[in-house]
Amino acid sequence: MLQQARSPQTAAPQAEPPTILLVDDDRSGLLMLEAIVGALGYRVRTAENGAEAYTEVRENPQAIDVVVTDRMMPVLDGLALTRRLKREDATKHIPVVLLTGAVDPADIADGLAAGAFYYLTKPPVEALVASVLASALEEVNRRAKLRQGLQRHQAGFRNATAMKFRLRLPEEVDPVVSLLASMQENPDSAIQSIHELVQNAVEHGVLRFGFETKAKLLRDGNWQNAIAERAGDARYSNGWVEAASVRRDDGIYVSVKDNGPGFNWKSFIQADPSRASAPSGRGIARAANGVFDKLTYDETGNQVVGVIKTTPALEW
């Protein structure tokens, strides 16, 4: 029996492509970046300075998925724009990518401290722009998914004194992170920093991907296939990650430990200008500059402890 074709009125609506807001006072640079981002299939909006961009995002924060802004601009520069967006509840979830003309360690550190998701050097390389935007949108989707989980179980876990989990697979990271974040006073703010630590332990501690290998796979577009293949490889089945959270008088301590070979964490805990053109390698620096008041690795890099200080109770 032939099925009757659905009419256009009943067809499933097509999802709109994400919208990227590009901010730059240099018209030629803005046009070049607009061409790159548009060719990647994204919708593009533009602004010529941070003040104009800030007004547009505040008026309709749900309409912008990612902001890409120049670091140096008149009226309101990219760093000030990032700070403003990150301190408001309606806009703090929007990833901000900073464009820098020169790779200055101080600029990079300032950007991460302000809450920037990533930084790109000028002139931007199309492959790296594609990788960074894909990662930023992945974070947006992850936050939305984890936020739903938080709403279900935060009320029950916000007074928990301790949690501990053992995992090894990439698909186990998000549920564990959601539960660990639920112990925080501001779980939505803690999600990404905790995620960086747990994901790093799975990818590098369990599955043994090094920085250079991951960067090459990301550039070639083979990262997702490679991580899925290695997760199912019996040679890596004995790896494990222990992720725990403990509530103490001075704050909540998040510990992530793995049985992998360790790594040189000292070169990753701060942003390294030599990795400015790499599509990976900034997660730990972002975690250190994120919600954690203190982040400490052991000598081998197999265990990290992050401290999130709690707000002291008012005394009457």
CATH architecture label of the largest domain: 2-Layer Sandwich
CATH first level of the largest domain: which class? Alpha Beta
Question: How many domain modules?
Answer: 2
Structural class: alpha/beta
Mean pLDDT: 85
Number of strands: 10
- From the alpha carbons, calculate the radius of gyration and give it in angstroms: 21 Å
Terminal residue distance: 77 Å
Widest beta sheet: strand line-up: 2-1-3-4-5
CATH superfamily of the largest domain: Histidine kinase-like ATPase, C-terminal domain
What portion of residues is helical?
40-55%
SSE pattern:
EHEHEHEHEHEHHHHEEHEE
What's the number of helices? 10
Strand content: 15-25%
Describe the sheet with the most strands. Answer: 5 strands, parallel
Low-pLDDT residue intervals, each spanning 5 or more residues: 1-12
Choose one word for the global shape: globular
